[in-house]
Amino acid sequence: MAPASAILTWVFSFFLYALAVVHGRGGGGGAAVELWCVAKNNAADNALQPSLDWACGPGGANCGPIQKGGPCNDPSDLQRTASFAFNDYFLKHGLTEESCSFSNTAALTSLNPT
Questions:
Q1: What is the mean pLDDT of residues 39-59?
Q2: Is 55 inside a domain boundary?
């Protein structure tokens, strides 16, 4: 049986990949661009936590998988946890830069965050 951390990594990666495919804009079927909304790597935990709380509360992100007992819960990695919530919110709110700000603690990336 695979270790729990490997399963969590796979679930997290699959969730981000499966839900964050954005098709190229403009006419004529441009190449697809994959975007993810992730916590900035230089964001302090004390700045991330209120943004995470907002995303999971009033923001309406589906944070069940990152809650205690959830398959993606990792209390030791606030950036990863916040990234999960931020990306879910981003997907539900138009896939725009405005839906990936979180008080300047998040950014869009085309690099797969796994």
A1: 96
A2: yes
